[in-house]
Automatic annotation (TrEMBL):
It comes from Candidatus Segetimicrobium genomatis. Belongs to the Gfo/Idh/MocA family. Residues 3-120 form the Gfo/Idh/MocA-like oxidoreductase N-terminal domain. Pfam families: GFO_IDH_MocA, GFO_IDH_MocA_C. Residues 134-324 form the Gfo/Idh/MocA-like oxidoreductase C-terminal domain. GO terms for molecular function: nucleotide binding. It comes from the Bacteria. InterPro entries: Gfo/Idh/MocA-like_OxRdtase_C, Gfo/Idh/MocA-like_OxRdtase_N, Gfo/Idh/MocA_Oxidoreductases, NAD(P)-bd_dom_sf. This is Gfo/Idh/MocA family oxidoreductase. Gene3D superfamilies: Dihydrodipicolinate Reductase, domain 2 (3.30.360.10), NAD(P)-binding Rossmann-like Domain (3.40.50.720).
Length: 327
C-alpha cells in the first residue's frame, strides 16, 4: 500500500519533511500547499509534486495523511479539520499555542479514527534515544538534572519573534526540551519559573525548577539571544555517582560510576535528518498508518507539553510554584 501524503506549509520544516518523505517508497506526495504560492511551487518542484492553494485542495487530491508544518498559531484549525475528515495528521510542534487549543486537538484526536502524531523529533534522535534506553534499563537512575535549551536569535524565520504567531518563545525550540524532560524523567509534578525580557519584545530568558513526580529535580534554562555557541542545547543527568551529558544531538558522554571508564558516543557525522530524528519520526508515522499502530508521540504527549509551557508562564506571572496537571 502507498500512503498519499500532502504537506500544508512550505517553510523550512515543511521542506525537511518533504525531502525525507520523498525518499520513502511507501509514500506518494500528492501536493504542497502554502498561502505563499511561490513557496509552494518552489518546494513542489524540488520534490516532484504539485503546488496547491490550501488544505481543501490537499484533501481533494485524496491525501490519506496530512503534515501540518505552518507557523505555530496556525496548527489547531487544519489539524482538527483533517482529523474530522478522517485523514491522518502529523503536526509539527507545538500542538497549539494555548491550553484550550491543545484540548481541542486532543478531543478531535480522541473522536477520530485517524491517527495523530506530534513532531517532537528529538525523541527519535539517536543521542536522546540512547539516554532514554539507559534509564529504561536501570543503568542510569536520575536524581538531579540540568537542562539548557537556547536559541541564537529570534530572527529566522522572520515570524519567530512575533508572539501572535509563535505563542511565545517557550513554544518555539524550548518546548522540545521541556518534552524531553518528561520523556526521560517522567511526569512533572510542579514548576517554578522566572523570566527576563532583554533583546526582544517578550520574555526571552527563562530559569525554572521542575519537580518530577518520580523524585528527580531539574533546573531548566532557556535563552532566546544566546548566539549559536555550541552546544545550544545540553542535558546533564546525575544519579548516584553517575552522570550522563548530551551536547546537542552530536554526542553523549557517560560516566557510569566512580572508578569506571567514561565513554563518549558520537553522532556528529550522521546526516542531519537522521541525527535530529526526522527520518525516524517520519518513517514511524508511516509505519503507524500502515500497521494500525499507536503513533510514537501522541495527543496526550502534546497536551502535557502544552501544560508545561503554560505552567512556566503562569509561574512567571504569579511568582509561585504551579502544580501539574493544570486544572
Amino acid at each position: 500500500m502507498v500512503v498519499k501524503v500532502g504537506i500544508l506549509g512550505a517553510g523550512y520544516i515543511g521542506g525537511v519533511h518533504a525531502r525525507t518523505l520523498r525518499r520513502d517508497d511507501r509514500v506518494n506526495l500528492v501536493g504542497i500547499a502554502d498561502i505563499r504560492r511561490e513557496a509552494a511551487e518552489r518546494l513542489a518542484a524540488e520534490v516532484g509534486t504539485r503546488a496547491l492553494p490550501d488544505l481543501a485542495a490537499v484533501l481533494h487530491e485524496g491525501a490519506l495523511a496530512v503534515y501540518v508544518t505552518t507557523p505555530n498559531a496556525h496548527h489547531v484549525e487544519p489539524v482538527v479539520a483533517a482529523l474530522e475528515a478522517g485523514v491522518h495528521v502529523f503536526s509539527e510542534k507545538p500542538m497549539a499555542t494555548t491550553l484550550d487549543g491543545a484540548r481541542r486537538v486532543a478531543a478531535a484526536a480522541a473522536r477520530s479514527k485517524a491517527l495523530y502524531q506530534l513532531g517532537f523529533n528529538r525523541r527519535w534522535a539517536p543521542a536522546y534515544a540512547f539516554v532514554h534506553d539507559l534509564i529504561a534499563r536501570g543503568e542510569l537512575r536520575p536524581a538531579m538534572a540540568h537542562v539548557k535549551m537556547n536559541r541564537g536569535e529570534l530572527q529566522n524565520p522572520p515570524w519567530v519573534s512575533t508572539t501572535s504567531l509563535t505563542g511565545g518563545f517557550l513554544y518555539e525550540s524550548t518546548i522540545h526540551l521541556l518534552d524531553m524532560c518528561r520523556y526521560l524523567l517522567g511526569e512533572i509534578a510542579a514548576v517554578t519559573c522566572q523570566a527576563r525580557t532583554t533583546a526582544y519584545q517578550e520574555p526571552d530568558g527563562f530559569a525554572a525548577v521542575l519537580r518530577c513526580a518520580g523524585g528527580a529535580l531539574v533546573t531548566f534554562h532557556s535563552c532566546a539571544h544566546a548566539t549559536w555557541a555550541f552546544p545550544f542545547e545540553r542535558i546533564e543527568i546525575f544519579g548516584p555517582h553517575q552522570a550522563v551529558v548530551t551536547e546537542e544531538m552530536d554526542r553523549v558522554t557517560v560516566s557510569p560510576g566512580l572508578g569506571r571508564e567514561v565513554t563518549t558516543r558520537a553522532y556528529a557525522q550522521l546526516p542531519m535528518e537522521e541525527k535530529w530524528g526526522y527520518r525516524a519520526e517520519d518513517a514511524k508515522f508511516v509505519d503507524a498508518i500502515l500497521e494500525g499502530r499507536r503513533p510514537g508521540v501522541t495527543a496526550e504527549d502534546g497536551l502535557r507539553a502544552t501544560e508545561l509551557v503554560e505552567a512556566c508562564y503562569r509561574s512567571v506571572r504569579t511568582a509561585a510554584e504551579v502544580a501539574l496537571p493544570l486544572a
